[in-house]
## 1
Amino acid sequence: MACLALAACGGPAADDQAHAGGGTSSSAGLPKGSAQAGERAANVKSAATGQTCIDCHGAGGNVPLDPTYPKIGGQYRDYIAHALQAYRDGTREHALMSQQAAGLSDQQIADLAAYFADQPSQLRDLRGVHDR
């Protein structure tokens, strides 16, 4: 379903630009990602969950719905790509994310990773942080 929404938003010229260069652009072996296409994909409701990426992770991936959900804005592109592939392939499991990622193509994962990696980061180093 997300493929159809992305195709409707971008059109052939946008697709050519987003996929130009061919080859892979990550350690995940994915095609080159487009942050623009990733932003569109982040706002497409999954048929499996009825949720978008933004519904749970918030604007730019930095305002999670729940404090237990990670901030993913500014995260390494390859980290996001590997995580989404693992959820999709079943080697990493989470009640929502496994369903959310199940129907994603390699291109959609590359695009989402490009979008969230390009966002301002609110990630922080947890070294020295102690449980109370």
## 2
Amino acid sequence: MAEQFSILAVCTGNICRSPAMERLLAHMFAADEDVEVASGGTFAHSGWDMQPGTRERLRAAGADTDGFVAEQTTPRMLREADLILGATREHVRDMLTDAPEAGPRTFTVRHFGRILAHIEEGELPEGSSAERLKALVALADQRRDRAGSLRGEDDVVDPYMLPEDVYDQAFDEICEPLEALAAKLGTPSPPGAGFRA
């Protein structure tokens, strides 16, 4: 059986930012049975669907929005995920309080994107997406210092109950590092000019 790789996207309520990350990543790895993507919230609106502003932008990007249900992150989810992408520094702090052993695999999505600039494509092995992702996460952990410490620009703005332009900003802040990830792995992005509508 092929090696599996799991990605967990995390925000607060699991209804705006982390569903966007989850479904864009799921779209990116749709052809890769060895990559699984899920999401959760540190204070989740458990049982809710994603917010309409998130759904509209995902649909415009070509990603699936069906069947989403918000759920609370658990220490087990954090321990078992191979890559954890939080929306903000606060999410990272909260997750590492619950599962400190997940530290080498935990980043804010925007900091992860900045770290990718310090990894050359040639450093990744040939192989499946799972194998390449595993190597990429190990390199990203080693290269954190090259991208500098976590700072305000590494947070994705929370658009919950805010105007449409804030949803646009949040979606762009999520898409940029995910597009960088797709480029680094040589993985197809959704149709059109990257993820963004």
## 3
Amino acid sequence: MMVIMKNPPITRKPASRKEITHERIVEVAARAIRRSGYDGTGVADIMKEAGLTHGGFYAHFPSREVLLAEAADRAGAESVALSERIAASVPPEQALPAMMRAYLSKEHCESIETGCPISALGSEMPRQAPAVRRAATRRIKEMIDVVARQLPDWGQPGAHEQALLMVATMVGTMVMARAVDDPKLSESFLEAALKQLAPTDA
């Protein structure tokens, strides 16, 4: 007689106070780097915003660079997860246009603190520590993959190339739309990119 063994339920150990605090610091830092840039984000300001003392920083991170790498990773993960949620919320043939409309929206343009870290921080990346660049690069590759998976010829070399171009266009458009002080020009950048990437007659 065969006995079917039931797997015991997986019990997750609740997060410790230190882990919860660590997560809070990274969450604050992920917003801060998008808002103020890497160079404009100081440890003291992050700790203060997280409701902690500056002295407690080194109980969680060996250096500022390690925190910035975790913050870059968190910010990138949030952006990728949002794109995946948008894609999953509509029929497959509408996923890519929905992602483009969300990314190239006025709301995203005005929400730099919670938006895509690539468009918020891309120009600063060459001057960052290797760990920060590595974390950002990993999330950029994930974003390219999310876009490629929505293409009809996903899995073919051409899909990856098209995804590279689309992500570069999305990010570059957002950088330009945020750079100018002319609201009409800013909207024109977004509208022009949307016409190319998510035409309404498609």
## 4
Amino acid sequence: MPDTAAEVRQQIREVLVGVFGGPSFVSQLQDAGSLREAGVPSTALVALLVAMEDAFGFQWDDDVRPEVLRSIDSLAGHVLALRN
């Protein structure tokens, strides 16, 4: 399991590649950039969240704050916070 923020961000990018079926879109995403503004539709976000559960071995809480879902950075921060 990845231990650093950089490793978690990279694994999230790999999950995104799986969701989008290739690296072309994902390679253009900035870690701190808004996924919604980058064009990630809500259906793809749901697929990402399910894939992250599998990849990182946790389940999303029903009351997760919306800002956690904003970017690769915020998603990585959430994953790391779950380990503490």
